[in-house]
Amino acid sequence: MELLDRALEFEENVSTFKSRDERIKASHTAKELVLSLNEIYKETKDPNIMDVMKRITAIKQKFEKRLKGRLTP
Fold it and tell me: Could you give the CA distance from residue 48 to residue 25 in angstroms, rounded to a whole number?
């Protein structure tokens, strides 16, 4: 359950990712967390894990949307 704690901590600290580089790293971290949680979810079918994965995915999508918006001229 250390992974679940890491995911909740990541979710709480979203506002600390200010620079572009920090957002890129956070997006990669979010992807790793979701994939790892998905492996656990496959075994346990715990709805709480699914809720955490959904929230982290939404955060990741916001980061990626902002990053892609800045890349276009």
Answer: 25
Q: Using CA of residue 25, residue 60, residue 18, residue 24, what is the dihedral sign?
A: positive
Check if the beta carbon of residue 30 is closer than 8 Å to that of residue 57: yes
| Inter-residue contact 29 to 9 (CB < 8 Å) | no
pLDDT reported for residue 72: 53
SS3 content of the chain, % helix, strand, coil (to 5): 90, 0, 10
Q: What is the pLDDT of residues 9-67, one digit of tens each?
A: 888 888 877 888 888 888 899 999 999 999 999 999 989 999 999 999 998 988 888 87
Contacts of 70 (CB under 8 A, 6+ apart): 20
